[in-house]
Amino acid sequence: MSTRTRPRAHPVDDTTTYREALREGLREALTADDRVFLMGEDVGRYGGCFGVSLGLLEEFGPDRVRDTPLSESAFVGAGIGAALAGMRPIVEIMTVNFSLLALDQILNNAATLRHMSGGQLGVPLVIRMTTGAGRQLAAQHSHSLEGWYAHIPGLRVLAPATVDDARHMLSAALADPDPVMFFEHGSLYNAAGRLDPAVHHVDLDRAAVRREGTDVTVVAYGGCVSKALEAAEELAGEGISAEVVDLRTLRPLDDVTFVGSVRRTHRAVVVDEGWRSGSLSAEIESRICEQAFFELDAPVERVCSAEVPIPYARRLEEAALPQPAGIAAAARRVVS
């Protein structure tokens, strides 16, 4: 175990950003276990494409924070090999669209080796990447493909939406004996919040109720959780009480929490930045109908991105994505 000492960037109960919370999680992981190392494009000298790993190279050195060539297949493969050899690698892929260049490694190797080896080989690997739209990065850098990865057995898929989850999910992910996909929504990096000093661990098997309500359940994850909360606040002014469930973990889904919420409110709206066709929202809606059909007082509504490549122009991009107004409108429809 490392004996390295270092100053804290922020007191645990101070206001911090999502980016800084992620960095503190990385710092804690690198300090606590010498088997942990970070690798990826520009994670070292540049400090990460989105500034998450800024300063970690100087603190931990090039053996623990490794800049890699621009080959996602190669460095994800190297991470798989390191995990098989007993290390605890954290691999950063710049944005989710680039993960497609490593899909063979993720799907055919990381996700399958435990099964194909009869349990003899585990791949304790964490793959971090930025996901989502809303930053005018146009069609090639605005994907929300978490639902694709949630389709794959052998992976755990995480989507932290709060500074507490950004701070504490990584340690839980590193403790998982199997590969974990860690999706950081790009619109959240500058979002600020106060870390709860009582939170030291995140249960990756449980969704979180971010706001209690009685009239309708709004299920969301990642960058859409704050939009769902904004919509709930608007609805409260109209006398509609919306419960907001943050999925947190997209595979395996915590049916108990979101279906249990629907059984109490009898109505549901599912928010998903992915495209509607074949989406994670469809799976959630299906599970609600399978498990709580006779509890529903209205059809389940879905609020998803428009079925188009995400536009560059700001107003078109905003129009294509789920927004608080659209979430609130869907909630009004199910309670009317």
Model description:
- This protein has 336 residues and is of the alpha/beta class.
- The protein is 36% helix and 20% strand.
- It has 13 helices and 14 strands.
- It has a seven-stranded mixed sheet, sandwiched between helices. Strands 9-11-10-13-14 form a five-stranded mixed sheet, sandwiched between helices.
- α10 packs across α11.
- It is globular, with a radius of gyration of 20 Å.
- The relative contact order is 0.12.
- The N terminus is likely disordered.
Secondary-structure topology with pairs:
Blueprint: E1 15-17, H1 18-32, E2 36-40, H2 56-60, E3 65-67, H3 72-84, E4 88-95, H4 96-99, H5 103-110, H6 113-116, E5 126-131, H7 146-150, E6 156-158, H8 163-174, E7 180-185, E8 192-194, E9 208-211, E10 216-220, H9 225-236, E11 242-246, E12 249-251, H10 255-265, E13 268-275, H11 280-292, E14 301-305, H12 314-320, H13 324-335
Parallel strand pairs: 2-3, 2-4, 4-5, 5-7, 6-7, 10-11, 10-13, 13-14
Antiparallel strand pairs: 1-8, 6-12, 9-11
Helix pairs in contact: 1-8, 3-5, 9-13, 10-11
How many beta-strand segments?
14
Strand order of the largest sheet: 3-2-4-5-7-6-12
- The low-confidence runs, each spanning 5 or more residues with pLDDT under 50, are 1-13
How much of the residues is beta strand, in percent? 15-25%
Assembly level:
single chain
Largest sheet: 7 strands, mixed
Q: Classify the secondary structure makeup into a structural class.
A: alpha/beta
Following the backbone from N to C, one meets helices and strands in this order, namely EHEHEHEHHHEHEHEEEEHEEHEHEHH
